[in-house]
Amino acid sequence: EEVTEFMRVLKYTMIDALRQSYSQVVADIRALTKVTEHIQDPMELSYSINLLACPLNVDVVPAKDDPPLSVSFSPPKLVTDFSDAYRSILLRHAIQSREHEVSGNQARCIAIQDMRAVAFQIEKLQSEQEYNFSIRLEGKGGTAILQVERKSLTRLRFEASREVLVTLAVAALILVSGYALLQTDFGGLVFILGFVGFGVLGILVDRVRDKLTEIHDYERKRAAGLTPSRPRE
Asked: How far is CA 133 from CA 31, 38, 80, 147, 148, in A?
């Protein structure tokens, strides 16, 4: 019976801690989503749960009307000789939970104010001004790291256009040079020119493809808004 009572106390404190952690994490994600909703630049979010000391993949933002975590449990009945000790455990758990709630509220308020200040500064920047920064925010249920990046689409498109023009110019130069060689006694050099030229063209085409991929990925991230950060290899 003593072992059973101990397990009941342990189960109660664990379930209550998990329930509180779940509510706090959901509230953190909602608050962070709310304060960053006007930022139009790509944002990557990583979040670590304090209670479990593990990362959370925030691939879905909880909606306002999502029901809270429903767990039906009640405080255990204490009848053994160790009831006083168990009551002390439950009392300490209640006190620690309250202290964590208060300190968590303060941490989240500070984090939200910091993020609002950052969002305000971002709104003041010119649309083509580039930046890349990360901010660490302490919430009630965990720690969030927000990575925000803005690239100039004008610059990216200009660089892509420049790479296309360079590629076309090199291709034209190779064709003209090859034709000119065929009109001389050095026509055999056309094969060497073609071998080297196609190698250079392959490199230039890859550079064009990389620039177009960069533009596509950036526009996709802008449309997606807040996304979970990718694991670093």
From this structure: 20, 17, 57, 6, 6
Which residue has tokens 């455990």? 89
User: What confidence tens digit (pLDDT) does each residue in 40-99 have?
Assistant: 788 888 888 887 888 887 776 666 666 666 666 666 565 554 555 656 666 566 666 666
Which residues in the chain come in under a pLDDT of 70? 1-7, 9, 60-108, 110, 126, 185-188, 190, 229-233
Three-state secondary structure string covering the chain: CHHHHHHHHHHHHHHHHHHHHHHHHHHHHHHHHHHCCCCCCCEEEEEEECCCCEEECCCCCCCCCCCCCCCCCCCCCCCCCCHHHHHHHHHHHHHHHHHHHHHHHHHHHHHHHHHHHHHHHHHHCCCCCCEEEEEEEECCCEEEEEEEEECCHHHHHHHHHHHHHHHHHHHHHHHHHHHHHHCCCCCCHHHHHHHHHHHHHHHHHHHHHHHHHHHHHHHHHHHHCEEECCCCC
Residue 231 Cα to chain centre, angstroms:
9
Tell me the C-alpha distance between 43 and 222, whole Å. Answer: 8
Q: Distance between CA 189 and CA 86 in Å, rounded?
A: 92
